[in-house]
Amino acid sequence: MSVGVLDPPRATVQPRARRRRPAANPQPSTSIRVSVATRDKLAALAKQDGLSLSAFMDGMVRRAERQKIFAEFRTALVEAFADPAYRAEMQEWEEADDGVDFDDDGWPEYNGR
User: Fold this and answer.
1) Do the Cβ atoms of 42 and 56 come closer than 8 Å?
2) Domains of the chain: total
3) 56 contacts: CB under 8 Å, gap ≥ 6
4) What DSSP state is assigned to residue 2?
5) Can you give the pTM of this predicted structure?
6) What whole-number distance in Å separates Cα of residue 12 and Cα of residue 8?
7) Is residue 111 included in any domain, yes or no?
8) In this predicted model, which residue has the larger pLDDT, 8 or 74?
9) Which among 23, 10, 12 has a CA at the least distance from the CA of 54?
10) Which DSSP letter does residue 5 get?
């Protein structure tokens, strides 16, 4: 029996094993001591995201840094709004007549009139 052009292949093709590519700019590395259980959990999470353990931990550090920055910002806002002088200045700005009319009639190009 001849094999036609549209016949499916008879053998299954095994997917290639993924090769690790070296990092474009490899960074010096070091070791850190963690429990085996922690290492295994981190490795499993990294694998779920398709990342190396190092790349996964780099992302964790970036997220922690961002969380710290936003927490500090939230604290600064709470402290600012607790300051009567700040609130008084904000009230002055809100009451200032800057010549801008925010009524619908003041912006016909944006409100369809």
Assistant:
1) yes
2) 1
3) 42, 45, 46, 49
4) P
5) 0.54
6) 10
7) no
8) 74
9) 23
10) T
> How many Cβ atoms sit within 10 Å of the Cβ of residue 69?
10
CA atoms within 13 A on the CB side of 47: 7
Distance CA 46, CA 51 (A): 5
Q: Which residue has the tokens 């809100």?
A: 94
Q: Tokens 């007549």 label which residue?
A: 97
What is the extent of the structural domain holding 40?
36-95
Tens of pLDDT along 5-29? 555 556 565 666 666 666 666 778 8
Q: Within a 13 Å sphere around the CA of 22, how many CA atoms are in the beta-carbon half?
A: 5
**Domain-located, residue 70:** yes
Determine contact, residues 46/52, Cβ cutoff 8 Å. yes
62-71 pLDDT per residue, tens:
999 999 999 9
In a domain, 40, yes or no: yes
Task: Report yes or no on 16 lying in a domain.
Answer: no
In the chain, where does DSSP find H-type helix?
A: 36-48, 53-82, 84-95, 108-111
